[in-house]
Design a protein that fits this description.
64% helix, mainly alpha
């Protein structure tokens, strides 16, 4: 087995064994795609908070946090792009974003692992900012995996009426009324 096959199998295992069972247990009023997009928005807000905290606490200028601000704008562009692709996901059909977003999920997972290693050491407010960025990256990855889940099929409505199957103008003896 090559490393790319292992990565794809690991990704499929995460979706099928971890995230899809959670998605299947969600109430029908909360589609799994909306939950995933809510996680994406939460990641955007946490990333924005990590951007603004050095400015507010230390008086840093935007030039001092230009890398974080560029990451925030990239996340915003990704979020807006994801909102445009949501209508492609329909119940009773395969989710097209699952194979399309495979590389994005793997890159986000690699950055999450990097952020976890980076956040281990730190002192004072730097440690808090690092933990905030780790939480932001974690919510981003969770949102990507929930968006990749298969939506639940719509609930079937059961009729309480009992009567002839064919109603209307053909209900009688076959002649038009």
């Amino acid at each position: 087995m090559t490393s790319s096959n292992f990565i794809v199998r690991f990704d499929d295992w995460l979706i099928d064994r971890l995230f899809q069972p959670v998605a299947n247990r969600l109430p029908s009023v909360l589609p799994v795609v909306q939950l995933g997009m809510s996680f994406q928005l939460g990641s955007l807000m946490l990333n924005g908070a990590a951007l603004l905290l050095p400015i507010v606490l230390f008086g840093a200028t935007m030039g001092g946090v230009v890398d974080t601000s560029l990451i925030w704008f990239m996340n915003l562009a990704f979020f807006l792009g994801m909102k445009k692709t949501i209508p492609m996901i329909r119940p009773n059909m395969l989710n097209p974003l699952r194979p399309m977003m495979l590389s994005m999920r793997m890159i986000a997972m690699a950055f999450l692992i990097y952020q976890l290693f980076r956040s281990v050491d730190g002192v004072g407010i730097g440690w808090i900012l690092s933990q905030l960025m780790t939480l932001s990256q974690l919510t981003f990855v969770i949102g990507l995996y929930f968006v990749a889940c298969q939506p639940q099929p719509p609930r079937q409505r059961m009729s309480s009426r009992t009567g002839p199957i064919i109603e209307g103008v053909w209900a009688g003896n076959g002649s038009i009324r």
